[in-house]
Amino acid sequence: MKKFIFTLFVGFSAIIQAQEIKQDSLHKNKPFVLDEVIVSTAFNKIQSQNVMKVEHSTVKELQQKGTATLIEGLATIPGVSQVSTGTSIGKPVIRGLSGNRVLVYSQGVRIENQQFGDEHGLGLNDAGIESVEVIKGPASLLYGSDALGGVLYFNPEKFAPANTFQANFNQKLFSNTLGSNSTLGLKTSTENWKFLARGSYNTHSDYKTGEGDRVTNTRYNETDFKTGIGYSNSKFSSIFRYNYNDLDLGIPEEGIANQTTNKKTEYPKQGVFNHLLSLNNVFFFQKSKLDVDLGYISNDRSEFEDSDVAVLHMKLKTFNYDAKYHFPKMGKFESILGVQGMHQTNANSGEEYLIPDATTNDFGFFGTGNYEWKSNVLQAGLRFDNRKTTTTAHGTPGEEGSFGALDKSYDSFNASLGYKTNLSKKLALRMNLASGFRAPNLAELTSNGVHEGTNRYEVGNPDLKTEQNIQTDLNLEYKSSHVEFFANGFYNHINNYIYTSPTGEIIDENAIFDYIQNDAKLFGGEIGLHFHPHPLDWLHYETSFETVTGKKQDGDYLPLIPANNWNNTIRTEFKIKNWLEDGFATLNVSTTFNQKNVSGFETKSNGYTFLNLGLGGKVKLGKTTFDINLNGNNLLDKEYTAHLSRLKTDGIPNMGRNIVLGLNFTI
C-alpha cells in the first residue's frame, strides 16, 4: 500500500488530502486519474468519499457535444432538462422541478435574476466557466430557501500556474443560426498574485426548424466579460471576481413569419444587464479555517414592445454573505458551523408592473458533521432559516397592475442525513434523507395582471404557505477497470406545492388563473452504464436512461415534467502520428419518449430520436497547436417539438440540423 499526497486547488483555496492506493492498481503505462473534488458540498471531498451523489462535468466536455448554449449542454446530464423559449432562453429543470425551486451559484455567489419567470434565462455565458456540479435533490441545509429541488454550482476558470502567462482564443460557428461565438482570454500569475480577464461575443440569427423555416425573432446577441484578481499565502487567500453580461433577446410572437438571417433583434424584445461581483476569502489557522464569501448582483431587466422606451423595467439588487467555520478535526470527525444571509430590493420604473417594489431579507444558520470509519461515511446536519418580505402598494385597488402592501415572514427548520459505504472494493452504496423549503416568490404572492407569454390573467395569493419537502435518495455505483455502472432512485414529497389553477372567469379575453397549493410527489431516477473493453481501451460505450413522474395529491399530473429519455454514445479515442493528439469520434443516438402524463392545461407530446456525430482533437502543425471540434446535431433534420418548449402551445417546432465548428488556440 502506498500513500500519495495530492494538493488540490478547490475553488479558491488549496486543500491537501491523502489518498491510499493499492500497489496493484498502479500501472506503468496507465496514468492514475484522481476523482474530481466536489466544491458544492460542505466538506469538499473527492466524489468517491462524498456522501451525496453529485454530477460533475467540465464545460469542455459539454462543448464537445456541440450544444449551442450552456443550458443545452447542462440538459445532456442525466436528471437535468430545460424549459426553453427558442435557442436564446433556457431554464434548468432538475428531476421535474424548475424556476425558483432550483438554485444557481456562480463565482461562489447565489444568482438572483428574477428567475420566477419562464422567459428569464440563466444569464450566464460558458466562457470563463471551468465546470459545473449538479446536486439533484433538496440542498437547503447548505443553501437555504429555493434549493428545494437542487443546485447548479458553476466553478469559474482557474488562474494560470505560478510564474506563467497564458492566452487563448476560441471561435465557434453554428450552421443553423448562422451564429458565431468568439472568446479571448488572458491570465498571468506570480507566486502570490493572480490575474485573469476574458471577453466573449455571441450572435445568432433566427433558428431554423427541421422543415427549413426560420422562427421569427428568436435571434439574440450577447456580450460577456469576466475578470478576476487573487492573492494567497500560507495563512490567507482572497479572490475578487467580476462578471458583466449583456443580453439582447428577441421575443418570438409571430411564429414562422418574416424569413431573414438578420441578427438585429426586432420588437418585442428584452434587454438584460447583469453585474456580478464576488469576494471569496479563506483564513487558515493552525488546524481550522474560516471561509467568508460576499457577493453583489445587479440585474437590470427591460422589455420593449414597439420602441426603445421600456414598458417593463425591473431592477433587482442583491447582496449575499456566507461564512463557514471548519472546526479542527477530532479523530475521524469533522464539523462546520455556518451563517448565511441575503438583502434584496426590487424596483420598477416602467409603466407596467409585473411584481411590486419589494425588499426581501434572508437569514439562516446551520451546523453539519461528517464521520468516517473504514469504508463508511456518515453525515448529518440541521438548519434554521427566516425570510422576511415586504412590498409597497401600487395602483388603484381592483385594477390590473395594482398591488397592496405586504409584510410576510417565513420560518423553516431543515435537516439532512446521509450514509455512504463500500459493499465491496468496486461497489458503493449511498443513502440520503433530506428536507428542503421554498418561501413563496413575489409573483405567487402578488400577481395581478396578464403575465407575458402565458396568455392568462394571473392572480397572486398573499396567504400562501412555505413549500416544504422531504426526499429520499438511493445511489448504487460499480467501478472496475473496464465497466462502470450507476443507478439512482428518488422519492420527493412536497407539502404545499404552489401552482396555478383556472377560476373559470375571463378578463379581456384572458382566462383568470389563481395561485393555489396542494401536496405533491415526484419519483423516478437515472440508470447508466459505461463499458470500455480490454484490450480495446480506445473504445467506449455509454448508455443512460432517466425518468421522472410528478403528481398532485388528488392524482392529477404536475405540469412541466420532462419526458423519459434514453441516451446512447459510442466514443473512440485515437492519435494520428505526431499531428493529432487526444483525438476522438462520437456517435450519439438520443431518444426522447412520448409524454402522455400531462396536467389538465398541457397538451401531450410525441417522442423523437436524434442522431448526433462528433469529431475532434488537438492538432499540431509545426509550432502551431490548436483544439478542434466538429459536431453535427440532429443530423437527420428531425422535425420535433420538445415537451418543455414554451413555443409548443403556438405549434412552433424546435431547432433542426445544426453543424458546429469549434477552434481553440492557446498561446
Protein model, in words:
The protein is mainly β and 667 residues long. The chain has a single domain (2-254, 261-301, 314-666), classed as TonB-dependent receptor, beta-barrel domain (Maltoporin, Chain A), CATH 2.40.170. It contains four helices and 34 strands. It has helices at 59-63, 70-74, 140-143, 442-446, and strands at residues 2-10, 13-21, 54-58, 80-85, 89-94, 97-98, 102-106, 109-110, 129-136, 150-156, 164-174, 179-189, 193-204, 220-232, 236-250, 269-284, 289-304, 312-326, 333-348, 358-373, 376-391, 406-422, 427-438, 448-450, 456-459, 467-479, 483-507, 510-531, 539-552, 565-576, 580-592, 608-621, 624-633, 658-666. The strands form four sheets. The protein has a 22-stranded antiparallel barrel. Strand 11 (164-174) and strand 12 form a beta hairpin.
